[in-house]
Predict the 3D structure of the following.
Amino acid sequence: MLTNSIHLISGHLLFKIATGLYGLSLIHGAFFGPTRRMLVFLLPALLANALVVAWRYWVAWPMLPMYMGPVVLPLILGGMALGARHQWAGRTQNGILTLVVIIALGAVLFPKDYYIPFLKSQTAWAHLFFWLGVAGRGCFLVAAIQAMAGLRKKNGRPAFSRSVPWIAWGFAFWTLSMFTGELWSYVGWGTPVVWDDPAITTTMATWFFYVGLLHLHLTGSWTARGRCAFTAVGGLMVLGLTYAPELGPFRWPLG
């Protein structure tokens, strides 16, 4: 138990370093744009973030580390920002990095990394449920950033088409996460998912929200600006329903 506590404290310190590096990459992007020199900060930040995730997995394996979403989400979003940086304008990439910094700061100031994993998560379905869900969140949030960039356009109609692939991938990942969660429930507890659980309710609310958004897009019943606004609201909903509940009590970061 003492060894695990030391590992968690060291991992939390390393995540603080990753958060600081994310902040430096955002500052560089805000002042100088998405240049190659920004990678001097972004790549070490992603490496430190990945080491934190690997560290917590090493402590918990083969079980799933609990409440790791706020730690993994910045890694997913940062990787997306890095992988598609040549396709986006600097403002869009800076918007994603701003979100990365906010999410990472939330994980630093409100950590839940001291919860130990439980035996029921000792199945591949639990890990698939978690990673597919975080990938879905990342895609939804990138779509929201793209939509907000479209809403800021002063001339012409906002380009909603840039958000569509991210919404589609996010919906696919989210749906697969729900199915693997159902399988995890059967394997771990021998029962179906309990639908009155708050976490399940918010997961289903998110799924139905994006069902409605995709329906509006495919039927063409709303304007591009309306769909952009709907997508931007979806990003706030994802943060409120799937990110905020995983945050713990406030902790002073220097403690």
